[in-house]
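Reminder: ligand-aware prediction takes two inputs, not one.
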Amino acid sequence: MKKSASGVGAGVSKRVWARRTMRALLASSLVLVVGPMSGGASAEPKFTIDDSSFKCMQDMTAVRHFYVDNLLGHLPETVAVAQVGKGDYPEGSVLQLMPNEVMIKQAKGFNPATRDWEFFYIDVSPEGSKIYKRGFADVNNRLGLNCFTCHVKARPEFDFVCETDHGCDPIPVTRAMFGALQRADPRCKNQPPMSAEDQEALKQLGEIVKALTSKTN
Ligand code: HEC
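Here is what comes back for the chain with heme C:
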């Protein structure tokens, strides 16, 4: 009123607008909170994934040559699917073959295109894990290749899990190399000295990565 020579009631309508906006914001955040529980197609995650969600691979559960975990306490269900080797993973499932690459199953309906898997590329060091990149269709591995593009090729009964014969494009990483990477995970405490075989496997992997990245750059 005091300063509004230019627009009568401008202050009032601004206040009304602010109140409406606030109400709308509150309403929409309520929707976001109840959305996932009611099965709505909300993009709001049901549980939080941050740097602290990741751990030393050797503290996860080994199934064949990869490791699994569950962020929601459903580890037995996750292990059961991994052991059978087909079927849908329960939400909260964490899968890892290498320290830097992680797949985590979000709540049902979160992203139908990836069957609710979220892909992560994380940096690992003795200090812990740091998410470098996360997402659905736009996360790449260290060679600049897209996680989704490969994993979507797994036949439907395998729920995006590639292993060796599920239909995905192969990766130039041998079992010896995965094993060495898993045993060399810098986040694990009290690591024994690396064996000569593991050192050799990592050296070969380093050479492959160098050759592939220099080709694409
Ligand atoms: C070139 C294709 C390709 C790309 C790109 C790729 N993967 Fe994979 N991934 C595979 C294959 C093939 C395997 C299985 C390897 C094996 O078991 O010998 C695999 C294995 C895995 C596994 C273990 C479970 C499984 O599917 O067997 C996880 C977890 C994983 N990848 C995550 C990722 C993430 C995260 C990214 C991106 C940062 C990524 N991958 C990029 C092909 C790919």
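The chain has five helices and six strands. The longest strand covers residues 117-125. We will return to this case in the review session.
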